[in-house]
Predict the 3D structure of the following.
Amino acid sequence: MSGAASPDVALALAADEPFARRRGGPPANVVVGVTLVGLVVLLAVVSLAWTPFDPTHIIVSEKLLPPLRAGHVLGTDQLGRDILSIIMAGARTELLVGVIAVSIAMFAGVPLGGLAAARGGWLAEVVMRGSDLLYAFPALLMAILLGAVFGASTVTAMVAIGIAYTPVFARITRAAGAQVLQRDFVLAARACGTSRLAIFVRHVLPNISAVIIVQATVAFALAILAEAALSYLGLGTQPPTPSWGRMLADVQSYLTLAPLLSIWPGLAIALTVLGFNLLGDGLRDVLDPRLSALR
Amino acid sequence: MTAVLEARGLRVVVNGVTAVDGVDLELREGSRTGLIGESGSGKSLTALAMMGLLPEGVDATGSVAYREQELLGMRERDLCRLRGDRLAMVFQEPMTALNPVMRIGDQVAEAIRLHRPVDGHAARAEAERLLTEVHLPDPAGRMRAYPHQLSGGQRQRVMIAMALACGPDVIIADEPTTALDVSVQAQILALLRELVEARRMTLLLITHDLPVVAATCENVMVMYGGRIVESGRTADVFGRPRHPYTRGLVDAIPDAATPPGALRAIPGTVPGLGRFPSGCVFRDRCWKATDKCHEEPSLTKEPQAFACWHPIAGGETAPAPQPA
Amino acid sequence: MIVAAAPEALTPARKRPRTVYEARGLVRTYAGPRESLRRPPAQLQALRGVSLAIAAGETLGIVGESGSGKSTLVRILLALDQPQAGVVEYEGEQVSGLAESRLRRLRREVQVVFQDPASSLDPRMRVGDTVAEPLRSLRVAGDQQARVAEVLAAVGLEADAARRYPHQFSGGQRQRIAIARALAPGPRVLFADEPVSALDVSVRAQILNLLRDLKQRLDLTLVLVSHDLSVVRHVCDQVMVMYLGRVVEAGPTGDVFASPQHPYTRLLLESAPTLSGPPPRPMPGQAPSASDVPGGCAFHPRCPLAFDRCLAEDPGLLAGAGVTSRAAACHLAFTGRVDRL
């Protein structure tokens, strides 16, 4: 079905076509997104078993080597550590941050949003306004707070980002959930005696999963960016654990001496974020349009 | 009487599936014609093709001519000049056809100014006149209202006013009353009939609802599986149908005269697009089908034309209803 | 079916069949959307005092247009919504105003089929799971899979339909699935809210035949809500006509349609297009919004027979003399005046 058609025409097409038909082949942005994300995951997984060199091994005599010298594919940093190895190990950190932060945000935000959608009234108002308040609080500030109390680390960064993103999930769950709750099949479920909780789990969640998954991929990308920023500021991952953000901070002083140094972590961050964003866009196109076009 | 809008061998292909399969259609000036079809019949696509409104990715071949001007393949620019001005369309769901953030008066005035060189003031005056013509209550007040403040019937009247804005020749109405209540439906149909007669327009009314056509149109065409299976004067086609599908449709509608008991339903279901059988499109649901029906019947040339190898004669009806 | 608005309207009954449902004085008002920051939202009067009684085994048709309150009435009878005033009794026990946990019996014995088969089935659930849902939620004992196969067969679908998803079926088949789901817990009463309006003409007859057939075989009480008068005329033995939140006429279908005693019923019948009858006569005026119900008899602004009493006094449901179960809410009902419209 043509996406450029007006709603009336789309309805007309749908009216004459009782059964939905799937078009073959995934969209281009999904392919690129999956490739990039797959690459990062691959690097991270491989790094668990093997990296070209030990990423924390300092050999000052081999500092600032250009790429393809002495077995260092991407060269070395100011302390002689192999850049490729740091990138690979750093991928682990970034993915871990993404997974944990998004998980926190999802498992906190979705039930809250669901509660607001199902109950409505003053409870919904309290939850949503509370989440607005949280939303206004930048992740950065939260990380500083947690870092000051518990000592800055990857964990404080993850938790801070997770808490800061909870409102996003609460909000979309509430909006999408409220829409699903209006549908006739929910009314039919109530007429069968299905409990409110069962309705939420059995009917609402599967029908909003598309929206949540897309949001999760986008949040993943943002979480990685946030961690990079926090690490750059020294509020996230602490040495010697490799982190792309901290790499950026480290190489600042050497920009004139070895400009390539800053490109590698920057590129890694950019491509990973791009990959997840494209994946999210592509997923949105794949998971949603058939339903909205036909209705 | 001349043919104002004519289709010859119209074929529309969507995603490789032939949705409209060789349709010949002729609208005489001043006539009111109904096009009956269920889902999968291709009626909406036929309507869109006749207005040049088919979306991209959808191919139409054959010929659609408005007063001898070929519409298929016409440049969008020229089509835009014809649409609204000479050919107007009224859709089923006015809420999606009307701009929700624009006042009614402005929308109607815009429809006028698209084709007529008048200033805003004159356009709004004409808009109010049109709203009066479609019997919208309190037209002056409604000029400043938004679509959501009107009822379904009132919105449909506004749609009709916009369609009439430039005094078109032809109105194509696609399920104009399906979304409306029974009492409002009667009002809108009466309005359409009155306007078409007063302005000497030609009406093509597309719907799945046989009684609506019976009330409004003097001619009717029945579509199934992308083809026209019967056409003729409404009284004849509904009173003495020749095609088994038409017979089935007529029998399926409970009427004051229908005896109590099960209704005669057409067995089976409408196949999806692209899944109609070869030869006669109706043969897998038809009680009169034989091997001959593997060959596609063409539409006869009589005034009441039908496409069937075993047309119905006399008071023949389908066998007794089967258990559900 | 017997309809009562006030005690004096109750006629002495011949031996009445068992009453399955009884409702008295139902009132339901909703707050409308907020149109302006300064004024409070308008109050939509969906039901303005509806009373009815449904006898076991009857087929009742509820006819009304949008704003009549028929869908609200169905929801309240199903205890999916609570009235602000009035009482609903099922099999003699009150069901309105009760917590969900006390409604087990109602949920098991009263089921519903909705209008739009596309939205009444969860698109993410397999058909078998959808049909089995009432069995799960009501904790019905026995082999659930077998029961699912049994009801799917009863509605004319093959057992392997259970493994497929709703979008793989046509509209008519989806409606059959919805009916199967409603039948799964073995109900005694089935509500069908516009069950065929969203379906193709050729499929409507199949579904209506199916409902008739099931009602007879399973000895159900069937309540059919429809705006399509011809469907109600053909399928239902009793009919109830609603307008702006009130019952305006009720009685045996044949009698009501042959000789309506409320002007609205009469005009509605005449405005419906038919295949072979006279051309439709449009009803005068427009239906007022439920937030702006006219005083006195709500129909008086559009009624060709309105006189001064109609503006001042709201007629209750008046029973026809000598006719036990016919009633109409019009000052001129049963006077022959409506017949001469």
